[in-house]
Amino acid sequence: MTLKIYGVAASRAIRPLWAAEELGIPYEHIPVHYQDTAALNAPAFRALNPNGTVPAIDDHGLVLFESLAITLHLARTRPEGGLWAASAAGPSQILQWTLWAATEIEPLARQWFHHTSFLPPEQRRPELAEAARAQLQTRLRVLDQQVEEQPYLLADGFTVADLNLAAVLQRLAALGGEHFPHATAWHQRCLGRPAAQRAMALRQLQ
Prior knowledge:
Glutaredoxin, 4 strands, Glutathione S-transferase Yfyf (Class Pi), Chain A, domain 2, transferase activity, 52% helix, alpha+beta
């Protein structure tokens, strides 16, 4: 039985796809689109993700949704793949940075994206986009300081924490990345990894 990953690469499914590529896990990619309401509402898919959103996975019978939970699961259950931390403090630090990405970064990044690109023009509110971008600057300063003297978030090296945060910050350049050179260099290191490039290339196929 093969790991199954549901969701197009141009969605949060890029996160488990990237993780699977990093870990060298054989997987089947089922590119359910986030706007395909028929597919998302089908009983078979709702059994995988009752929220009717992507991504979802079926890992040899274990069904999970929520992209960051999925990447943590894949990294933790395949420690030989190198995405989990080797140090005693590492697992807690991975959780810290992943939750920081989910609570401090993603809501603001999504607010900015929705009101600059995603929503129909008549529904966009530029003041909300600018407010989100402004609030993100203090968060990006935290990241910039963290990677000023080490290449990745943890001393262990590249882990699923970097993968999760880099994926959440996929639009770092547009969010003010030019003011944070250490964060920008870290982001480029993460997205330049061969596994990241292989996952990103899946977007061209959909």
